[in-house]
Amino acid sequence: MESSLSLQTNLYARITPAGAFYAVANKSESASRTLLSNILQSSGSEILTTEKLLQWAETTDTSAALNLLYRLQRLEFLYGEDTPAQLPPPSDNALAKLLPHLSDSKKALLIDQDGFYFANAGFNHEAAEEVAVLANEAIRLSERHALLIKNNLNIYQNAWGLCDPTGQSELTFFPIYIKDTKVILVTGGVPQLHKEAFVALVRLLYQTNDPAGFGMAA
């Protein structure tokens, strides 16, 4: 069964919001994250071929690469599309346009690993600065207690949030690991990371080795 797998020709690899979240929500390495992150870093205009799949999967084993692709497709982390993806050039303005789509309240921030925000939608400047510090400290606390959370409590999520009595999030901090850089996405209200805007955000952040290099949007 495994040896019968083959690529359908003339398709472009597209990552779903779930696949993008899986790729960047954890800094641990895996074959799945390698393939997903390399596709996210690509231009989106390259047709998926066997050679390109091997390059993205960072392997020379065609069978293993095809099986990995098939498994990620079954998980709905990626799919094939007959048109290339469109992505605007990386800029402060491009990020600012995406951020409101990631929250039902249209409020979101991007924070660098030093605790400074560099893109903002919906928060006033003073609040954004304070929330950035809070988010940075919360994620650092989470990282210090990662073994307890994962090994003892069997919780495999890295996001932290402030919730109302029904469990609805009012403020959530999502660590995003882009190569060797950590970025924190803050959403006010209920997160909307199931949208294509999240995939576009991740792809934009991959366009630079230093995501915070976009500058800080006040």
Secondary structure layout plus pairing:
Elements: E1 12-15, H1 17-24, H2 31-41, H3 50-57, H4 62-74, E2 78-81, H5 92-98, E3 107-111, E4 117-121, H6 125-144, H7 146-152, E5 160-163, E6 169-178, E7 181-188, H8 196-205
Antiparallel strand pairs: 1-2, 3-4, 3-7, 5-6, 6-7
Helix pairs in contact: 1-2, 1-8, 3-4
List keywords for this structure.
two-stranded antiparallel ribbon, single chain, alpha+beta, 5-stranded antiparallel beta sheet, Roadblock/LAMTOR2 domain-containing protein, 218 residues
Brief write-up:
It contains eight helices and seven strands. By secondary structure, it is of the alpha+beta class.
If you had to describe this structure to a student in words, what would you say it looks like?
The protein is an alpha+beta fold and 218 residues long. The protein folds into two domains: 2-81, no CATH class; 92-214, 2-Layer Sandwich (Beta-Lactamase). It is 39% helix and 18% strand. A five-stranded antiparallel sheet has the order 4-3-7-6-5, sandwiched between helices. A two-stranded antiparallel ribbon has the order 1-2. Helix 1 (17-24) crosses helix 2 and helix 3 crosses helix 4. The chain is globular, with a radius of gyration of 18 Å. 34% of the residues are buried. The model has no long low-confidence stretch (mean pLDDT 90).
